[in-house]
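Sharing a chain and its predicted structure for anyone who wants a worked example. Both blocks are below, sequence first, tokens second.
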Amino acid sequence: MRIDIITVLPELLHSPLQHSIMKRAQERGLLEVCIEDLRAYGLGKHKQVDDYQYGGGAGMVMMIEPLSNCVETLKAQRTYQEIIYLTPDGVRLNQSICNQLSLKENLLLICGHYKGIDERVREKYVTLEISIGDYVLSGGELAAAVLVDSIGRLLPGVLNDETSALFDSFQDNLLAPPVYTRPVEFKGQKVPDILLSGNFSAIEEWRYEQALQRTQQRRPDLLAE
């Protein structure tokens, strides 16, 4: 899979995508993440990428021309199954969306900044708008990093144990059950006996019951879905 990211602040994306699982995915050739600096397409001597909004109001808007030129340049090189704009008014990201996007070959992400992007970019190019939550960030870069991580870890061969992702929270609309590791007892707190029993069918049943109980307590809205 290849993911291209258009941003005015590429340095914000380098560190989150160069460590741990995302680093391993790229080293194994399973994921390619390319960061495109929008300022390379900026206008004039100062490489301008933003301007005042028509009609007045606070905040600058990312201009249509640099974004259009950047998107068109990238589209000339490959076909994107989705062109995604990270925005607070997009559909809220969930595991189902991540699962679907992990099956794509090429994705293009546009990171908003300032007061957002010229609406004509959204109308002409964007095929999917995604929000990572009901709050506002300074820009779309951190949201893009979240999206790349949530997709990349699902690619076959990225996780050392390929079944691990199948038991993550939100798969099947359930939160993950409690997990334990050594020692068996610590300051009076013990690991549940069932996990030490070696009876794997009983363990799986216990885990399912715990996941269901935790979801009922903490996120009943998931069960309603």
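Comments welcome. The domain at 169-224 is CATH 1.10.1270.20 (Trp Operon Repressor; Chain A).
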